[in-house]
Design brief:
- By secondary structure, the protein is of the alpha/beta class.
- It has a single domain, classed as P-loop containing nucleotide triphosphate hydrolases (Rossmann fold).
- It has nine helices and twelve strands.
- It has a six-stranded mixed β-sheet with strand order 6-7-8-3-9-10, with helices on both faces.
- Helix 5 packs parallel to helix 6.
- The termini are far apart.
Length: 257
């Protein structure tokens, strides 16, 4: 078991954003978190990564309470690819990927030969090694997203969190990023949790889904269990056709109700 969340709740002042959420994920699995705007998806990722401190509940990473770990220890186990990772500084791709090694650096904070090799392997794995000397402000959206994933891999985490990893990407890059995430999860034995507004991408690439609504789990389980017409109608307020073909699920929105 890589990650276990039990009875997690979080509030922004008096507004409850996460309400009694429990879930588990093992290595080699991709868990998709879906739901409408304001459902608590991004907040849940931040609680898992200890960016936000839950009001109640526990987050166990490999059996340890994440709130009892130092920030650098958290970063060695959990890597997060945020929704927007913009930088206004002309760092090279290698510079950015090496930032993933910061939790592992000693007191002097200098990269060793081993750190460079890990960064190079992360770039090779995400197909950006040839861009190592390029400035990140010269990259396309898809290339930059791969660089940020490489930086996350350089942390050598056991858990990978991604907040809308295909945001603002065209169809080709969306598929490329999702296929990369799926492959890395298997090869690196990661427990991967991703937030997505694209139900069809989530259905294609995730092993299981959690459907959030107003901070609560409305439905959880396999793609087939979660993505059905009634759930979509009740949570999204949309009439939809759900097609199951060749082991895949496709959601076609029809009209708002």
């Amino acid at each position: 078991m890589r990650l276990r969340i039990k009875d997690l709740s979080f509030s922004y002042d008096s507004i409850k954003a996460i309400d009694n959420v429990s879930m588990e994920i093992n290595e080699g699995e991709v868990l998709g978190i879906i739901g409408p705007n304001g459902a608590g998806k991004s907040t849940l990722l931040k609680c898992i990564n200890s960016i936000l401190k839950p009001r109640v509940g526990t987050v166990l990473v490999d059996g340890e309470d994440i709130l009892k770990l130092r920030k650098d220890e958290v970063a060695k186990r959990v890597a997060m690819v945020p929704q927007n990772s913009l930088t206004s500084f002309p760092f090279t791709v290698l510079d950015v990927v090496l930032m993933g090694r910061i939790p592992h650096l000693g007191k002097l904070g200098r990269e060793s030969e081993r750190d460079l090799k890990i960064a190079e392997e992360a770039m090779r794995t995400t197909f950006v090694l040839s861009l190592a000397d390029r400035s990140v402000d010269e990259l396309s959206g898809g290339e930059f997203r791969r660089v940020i994933i490489a930086m996350a891999l350089a942390q050598e985490p056991s858990i990978l969190l991604l907040d809308e990893p295909t945001l603002h990407l065209d169809i080709s890059h969306q598929l490329g990023i999702m296929e990369l995430i799926r492959r890395l999860t298997a090869e690196k034995k990661l427990a991967t949790i991703l937030v997505s507004h694209d139900l069809n991408l989530a259905a294609k690439f995730c092993d299981k889904l959690i459907l959030l609504n107003s901070g609560k789990i409305y439905s959880a389980g396999s793609v087939e269990e979660v993505l059905n017409r009634e759930n979509i109608k009740q949570v999204y307020g949309v009439e939809a056709q759900v097609i199951r073909s060749n082991g895949l699920v496709y959601v076609i929105p029809i009209k708002p109700i």
